[in-house]
């Protein structure tokens, strides 16, 4: 699809500079503004018919103003001069109601990014709507036709989008970049002997030519759904658990939440004051690599314009750094880590064993393929979630299981990691292979 004309980076910079100048003219002592624009196409085909076909276009500008230690903000989706001026006036007017906060303010000028590398994030997909429909139809057909037990579908979806983001502040920072993201997914239902099971597969990338083929995604979605048929319940037991790479990402995500600024400052974390403390197994290493080319979480600077840099977050199981923006860094008496807005490509080092090796090492236990619910307490680390998967005997998958609950505590789970696989999943901001845990409680019938 031919991309429509959108504001350029230079145009967005002009809007931001105008907003910053107006903020100072209205009495602000400092200000920051961000502007975004983007376009996208989404197509869903269900049961071989087009269900949805959507084009979307978005743009907006947000401004934060500081009157000493008082902060307020406002935003608009209209990038016209009058709308921007009104937005700035609104933000300045609200500041009188804000409380004094000695940690409020822009990022320290010396921490702002000076050189902005090209991270190869922008690869628009010139796909026409009819071509997207054909690809989605092909993907779903591969699933529906692969096995007679595939009786229903939640559809195949193609999504493509490009965007542009610019950030500036009155400390002299004004930079931006373009990016893109494309995806293809399929979810189907299998049925046999009165039992129905659902599963899915997907692919996502900055570049459309790096997506998995529609046929492969459809067939994999069908195979995953069919494999879950004839599932049984387990009796309650303690056993090793293997998280495949697609779920292990979320497992490490709980740790990132626990060592983030807001959780640490509010002491709403199960690992308070954990800097230079061993939290994970002594072989676990996690790096943050913000400048990976075409990475899904790559960025040359964070949401405050602070330079992003490579760093080791976990070394030998020991926490070597927190995840901080400027505000909570000041609250904690520390420095920002360049993580305003989140993390940038966490890479969990493997232990040299394949997925098959980990299954063999587990010998007898649970391979979990689906987690249900949000039963994780971020304050205590208590972990209790519904699950489904496969029971493993002698290192081989024996039969599917469902309607079970996995329970433990994240502090124990992190310390009891046995191995991390080489089967790294690149489809998110946390890159990790499968993770084998020594033991969890599995509750069933």
Question: Total number of β-strand segments?
Answer: 17
Radius of gyration: 24 Å
Principal-axes shape call: globular
Work out the strand percent.
35-45%
**Cα-to-Cα separation, first versus last residue:** 53 Å
Order of helices and strands: HEEEHHEEEHEHHEEEHEHEEEHEEE
CATH class placement of the largest domain: Alpha Beta
Strand adjacency order, main sheet: 3-2-1-4-5-6
Share in helix: 10-25%
Report mean pLDDT, rounded to a whole number: 96
Taking the sheet with the most strands, its summary is: 6 strands, antiparallel
What is the annotated CATH architecture of the largest domain? 2-Layer Sandwich
Number of helices: 9
- Supply the helix-strand structural class: alpha+beta
Number of domains: 2
What would you note in describing this structure?
The strands form three sheets. Strands 3-2-1-4-5-6 form a six-stranded antiparallel sheet. The protein has a five-stranded mixed barrel with strand order 7-12-13-14-17. Helix 1 packs across helix 2 and helix 3 packs parallel to helix 4. The protein contains nine helices and 17 strands. A hairpin with a 2-residue loop joins strand 13 and strand 14. It folds into two domains: 9-227, PmbA/TldD superfamily (PmbA/TldD fold); 231-445, no CATH class. With 445 residues, the protein is of the alpha+beta class.
Task: Furnish the topology, listing elements before pairings.
Layout: H1 9-25, E1 30-46, E2 49-67, E3 70-76, H2 81-94, H3 129-144, E4 150-169, E5 174-192, E6 195-205, H4 214-227, E7 237-243, H5 245-258, H6 261-266, E8 286-288, E9 311-315, E10 318-319, H7 326-331, E11 346-348, H8 355-362, E12 365-372, E13 382-393, E14 396-409, H9 410-415, E15 417-420, E16 430-431, E17 435-443
Parallel strand pairs: 7-12, 11-16
Antiparallel strand pairs: 1-2, 1-4, 2-3, 4-5, 5-6, 7-17, 8-9, 8-11, 9-10, 12-13, 13-14, 14-17, 15-17
Helix pairs in contact: 1-2, 3-4
């Amino acid at each position: 699809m031919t991309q429509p004309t959108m504001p350029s980076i230079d145009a967005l910079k002009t809007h931001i500079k105008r907003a910053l100048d107006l903020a100072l003219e209205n009495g602000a002592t400092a200000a920051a503004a961000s502007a975004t624009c983007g376009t996208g196409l989404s197509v869903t085909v269900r049961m071989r018919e087009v269900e949805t076909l959507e084009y979307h276009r978005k743009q907006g500008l947000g401004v934060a103003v500081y009157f000493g230690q008082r902060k307020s903000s406002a935003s608009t989706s209209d990038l016209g001069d009058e709308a921007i001026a009104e937005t700035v006036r609104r933000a300045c007017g609200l500041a009188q109601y804000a409380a004094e906060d000695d940690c409020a303010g822009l990022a320290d000028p010396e921490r702002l990014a000076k050189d902005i590398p090209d991270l190869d994030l922008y690869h628009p997909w010139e796909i026409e709507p009819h071509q997207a429909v054909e690809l989605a139809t092909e993907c779903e057909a591969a699933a529906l036709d692969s096995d007679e037990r595939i009786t229903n579908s939640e559809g195949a979806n193609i999504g493509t989008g490009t965007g542009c983001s610019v950030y500036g502040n009155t400390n002299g920072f004004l930079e931006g970049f373009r990016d893109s993201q494309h995806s293809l997914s399929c979810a189907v239902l299998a049925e046999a002997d009165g039992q129905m099971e659902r599963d899915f597969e997907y692919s996502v990338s900055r570049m459309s030519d790096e997506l998995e083929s529609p046929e492969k995604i459809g067939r994999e979605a069908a195979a995953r759904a069919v494999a879950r048929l004839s599932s049984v319940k387990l009796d309650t037991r303690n056993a090793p658990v293997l998280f495949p790479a697609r779920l292990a990402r979320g497992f490490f995500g709980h740790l990132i939440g626990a060592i983030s600024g807001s959780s640490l400052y509010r002491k709403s974390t199960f690992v308070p004051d954990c800097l230079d403390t061993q939290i994970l197994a002594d072989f676990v290493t996690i790096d943050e690599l913000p400048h990976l080319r075409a990475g899904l979480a790559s960025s040359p600077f964070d949401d405050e314009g602070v330079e992003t840099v490579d760093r080791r977050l976990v070394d030998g199981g020991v926490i070597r750094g927190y995840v901080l923006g400027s505000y909570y860094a000041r609250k904690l008496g520390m420095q920002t880590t360049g993580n305003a807005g989140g993390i940038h490509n966490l890479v969990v080092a493997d232990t040299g064993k394949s997925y098959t090796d980990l299954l063999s090492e587990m010998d007898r236990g649970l391979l979990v393929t689906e987690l249900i619910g949000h039963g994780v307490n971020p304050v205590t680390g208590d972990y209790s979630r519904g699950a489904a998967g496969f029971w493993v005997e002698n290192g081989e998958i024996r039969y599917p299981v469902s309607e079970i609950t996995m329970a433990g505590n994240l502090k124990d789970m992190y310390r009891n990691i046995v191995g991390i696989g080489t089967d790294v999943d690149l489809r998110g901001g946390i890159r990790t292979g499968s993770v084998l845990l020594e033991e969890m409680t599995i509750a069933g019938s």
